[in-house]
Amino acid sequence: MMSCTKMEERILAYVDGRLKDSERSETEKHLASCAACRVRVNEFRSVGELLDELPQVEPSPAFDVRVRARVAAEPVKQSWWAWLRPSPRIAFAASALLVAILWIDYHSTVIAPLIPPDEADAQMMQDISVMEDHDTLANFEPLKELPPAVDNADDADDSDHQM
Amino acid sequence: MTRSDVQLMLDVKSGDERSFELLLQRYRTPLVNFLYRMVRSREQAEDLAQEVFIRVYRAREEYVPSAKFTTWLFRIATNLALNSLRDHRYQKLEMSIDAPLMDSEEGDQRPFEVADKHPTVEQELVEEERKKMIRHAIEKLPEKQRAAVLLHKYQELDYAEIAKILSCSESALKSLLFRAYEMLRVELAPLVRRGKEAK
Predict the structure, then answer these.
(1) H-type helices in A1-87, by residue range?
(2) A57 pairs with which residues across the strands?
(3) Helix (H) or strand (E) holding A103
């Protein structure tokens, strides 16, 4: 047998006619034997009818006009390409920027040493031993063509005499 | 053939502005009624309903028909109404206690309601008193219960839909509705009894 507490869970659905057949017949069995729940069901129905008495309200004539105006004022959403299309200046500026970036990138690759920085450092370290080797330097052909070194001390003496 | 709400919204998504106009015509009255009964001010109800339509329009690009259109629409409306009531409550607290009191039940609904069929003055007064009592009973409900009753009674949405709108479980909604109707039964007891005597 259904309890009054269970009835509380079902009362609205019963009044609304939204119960399954099995639930409805179980509820009606309870109502047949419970006067308090019968009264409550009638009063819930009565409340529903009272709520129906409230008149419907109509939006003012200006309502639609205002909504349409606000919709018309909404910014139009566009894709990236659609954003570029209506503005040739922006499209031109973007293209020029792209060309400039590519040009700079190409030239920096040509001008910059092709040897990676780490390898360049290692090469320099190898050259230091050659630079410090006096015999190698003395027999280095291009250096032989240079004029003989000037003695700085003599120059200093000469300048003293001139004074 | 009448297009469904979801179909209309998908058409709006693909750029058909006339479908938005159809949705506006379909839902302007239910939305304004719902919001009016929530916030009890015609001006505010229309402002909020406008905001609901604008939000729907703004969301058109991302619209995915994962739920019923009405669930989405009334969810936006309910959230806006609850926020507005909360903000209004703070405004009221800031008002001077010396400010003259207004009859909130009268509000500004009179020129807004659809007129009855020429009743006598006495009948009109009795009817107005009756409506006033019903409005007052609805107004006295806690905000969430009020929203649940309005969606259940006037929009005739099913329990699962109302539960989604109010972000609660279906059993919690049933309990919420039961408490709300119990409160209305107590508040409207004189009218409820009169109704029973008349039968």
Answers:
(1) 4-16, 21-33, 35-52, 61-72, 80-84
(2) B113
(3) helix A88-111
> What SS3 class is residue A7?
helix
Which of A47, A59, A74 is nearest residue B58 as measured by Cβ atoms? A74
Judge: A70–B50 Cβ closer than 8 Å, yes or no.
Answer: yes
- Do B26 and B5 meet the contact criterion of CB atoms below 8 Å apart? yes
Q: Which one of A14, A20, A51 would you mutate to disrupt binding with B, by most B Cβ within 10 Å of its Cβ?
A: A51
Q: Name residues of chain B where pLDDT drops below 70.
A: 90-117, 193-199
**Residue B8 amino acid letter:** L
The answer to whether A48 contacts B153, with C-beta atoms less than 8 Å apart, is: yes
Q: How far apart are CA A111 and CA A153, in angstroms?
A: 43
Tell me the per-residue pLDDT of A16-61, one tens digit each, with 9 for 90 and over.
999 999 999 999 999 999 999 999 999 999 999 999 999 989 999 9
Q: Which among A56, A67, A74 has the least Cβ separation from residue B50?
A: A67
Structural domain boundaries in chain B: 1-95, 116-193
CB of B71 closer than 8 Å to CB of B161: yes
**In the 8-state DSSP scheme, what is residue A57?**
B
**B84, B48 Cβ separation under 8 angstroms:** yes
ipTM value of the model? 0.80
Fold of B116-193: Arc Repressor Mutant, subunit A (1.10.10)
Is the CB of B114 less than 8 angstroms away from the CB of A18? no
- Give the 3-state DSSP-derived string for chain B, with helices as H, strands as E and coil as C: CCCCHHHHHHHHHCCCHHHHHHHHHHHHHHHHHHHHHHHCCHHHHHHHHHHHHHHHHHHHHHCCCCCCHHHHHHHHHHHHHHHHHHHHHHHHHHCCCCCCCCCCCCCCCHHHECCCCCCCHHHHHHHHHHHHHHHHHHHHCCHHHHHHHHHHHCCCCCHHHHHHHCCCCHHHHHHHHHHHHHHHHHHCHHHHHHHHHHC
Cβ contact (<8 Å) for B195 and A46?
yes
pLDDT, residue A117, reads 63
CATH for B1-95 (1.10.1740.10, 1.10.287.90, 3.30.2130.10, 3.30.559.30): 1.10.1740.10
Interatomic CA distance for residues B117 and B122, integer angstroms: 14
